[in-house]
Amino acid sequence: MERFKLQVEAREVMKPNQLRRSGKVPGTLYGPGTESKSVQVVQKEFSRLPGAAYSQIIDLEGLEGTVKALIRHVQRKHLTNEILNIEFYRIAAERKLTVVVPLKYFGTSPAVQKGGLLVEMFQFAEVECLPDDIPDHLDVDISRIENIDGGIHFSQLTTPEGVKILNPAEELVARVVAKKGGSTTKA
Fold first, then answer.
1. What CATH architecture is 4-90?
2. Cα 44 from Cα 16, distance rounded (Å)
3. Dist. CA 86–CA 63, nearest whole Å
4. What are the extents of the domains in the chain?
5. CATH class of the domain comprising 97-178
6. pTM (2 decimals)?
7. pLDDT tens, 73-130?
């Protein structure tokens, strides 16, 4: 898997609004065993990162060589969705992390073929693992849902070695329900 890359610089001595007007976004780089640093990134470059970058390791280049980090938080303006601030978490290769990874639904549920409606309860799962073990996604095989009112729990998901799901095991990831007003038969 190719890593995402992003250029960062030490933050200029400007007020945050001035920095944003110049096309840059203020941020903070912090992590275990190091002092936090004020940084800035070019807003257009950050906006080009795909959604997958939010749950994967990013190579931050330009500050002190290459720093491996995760995007921990992106603060946005409520009405305009303008990026106000970014928090980058410097990772340590030997320390486990808690990250959110997307769920990827696949397959065809026999219960849906019987007339049920698939309800995806979650789009993401919270996992704990070493930085190099972060999965791109977790698979959810909905073909395992055979009956209406049946579902898949977090405990039933298969994870790569070294990856632990932190969501409650008994919580439903997806389920098939009867369509309202329709006559579906339970098998």
1. Beta Barrel (2.40)
2. 16
3. 16
4. 4-90, 97-178
5. mainly beta
6. 0.76
7. 999 998 888 899 999 999 988 899 999 999 999 999 999 999 999 999 999 999 999 9
